[in-house]
């Protein structure tokens, strides 16, 4: 087995979460890296885990991502995004956060 294969088996070339949760990617960096000591990152992640407000949680996750990128704790290779247009007369379309992106099962035209 060469060095690359050995690293892949150890899981050091990449990481993903089993359950869809945006904060898991950010939490991983403070839980596993003893050298990453950024108070702003820890504060933002703590706020994102404890707030009941979706808007506050999102702002805290954005702040945590910025703090992580400033320290170059990780280097994002890509950032997925998608734009979707749905005619205003189409109702009942479900946009999922994980798995199949759309569900037209209950969709109808009004």
TrEMBL record:
Organism lineage string: Bacteria, Bacillati, Bacillota, Bacilli, Lactobacillales
Superkingdom of source: Bacteria
Protein name as catalogued: Peptide ABC transporter substrate-binding protein
